[in-house]
Amino acid sequence: MSNTDTRDFNLDLVLHPLYDSDHPLGAHLRNLVKAGNFSSDPSARVDITPHGAGGLKATVTVGDPAHKQFQGFFATGTATSNVDVQSATGRLFYRGSPPADGDNKFWIQQFPGPTPKETGRLVLEFYTDERLTAVFKTDRGNGGTEGSGAWATIN
């Protein structure tokens, strides 16, 4: 999958930390997604539960406009598997219709919370070998701050 594929790249706009905010950039990002024929289910839910020895199961359930459920499994206990057992509401973003039935791979990532005691935003990206099919993110915030800067050509 190429990150220059605008059909998939634009879907990643929903991952921006200001997407759900009152910040002017949040409104701009939402307008870009709306213009790009993206849809979302604001009643989506994720449940991360223990599964087998050393693994977790991710279940994402959506209900508007279609009742669908995704179940996937992933290993834990590595330096990069920082996902907590949890249940949370969120939003599933997709282009056109909800993802078709069938196999998908997924990447799951949990961001740090605003404080060490809070669970941060959880994001799941669903994809096939050809394209990104959907992005789910919880309604929680995560730590971070806005900054500014500039790119410059260097020799």
Structural features, described:
There is one protein chain. Strands 3-2-1-4-7-6-5 form a seven-stranded antiparallel β-sheet. A hairpin with a 4-residue loop joins strand 6 and strand 7 (132-138). It contains two helices and seven strands; from the N terminus they run ααβββββββ. It has a domain at 38-138. With 155 residues, the protein is mainly beta. Mean pLDDT is 75; it is low at 1-9. The chain is globular. 21% of the residues are buried. It has helices at 6-9, 24-35, and strands at 38-51, 55-62, 68-75, 86-95, 105-112, 119-127, 132-138.
Features:
single chain, seven-stranded antiparallel sheet, 2 helices, 10% helix, mainly beta, 155 residues
Short summary:
With 155 residues, the protein is mostly beta strands. It has 2 helices and 7 strands.
* H/I helix tally: 2
Question: Which segments are poorly predicted (pLDDT under 50) over 5 or more consecutive residues?
Answer: 1-9
- Major beta-sheet overview: 7 strands, antiparallel
> What is the percentage of strand-forming residues?
35-45%
H/E element sequence: HHEEEEEEE
Structural class: mainly beta
- Number of DSSP strand runs: 7
Question: Mind telling me the C-alpha Rg?
Answer: 16 Å
The N- and C-terminal alpha carbons lie at a distance of 30 Å
Which range best describes the helical content: under 10%, 10-25%, 25-40%, 40-55%, 55-70% or over 70%?
10-25%
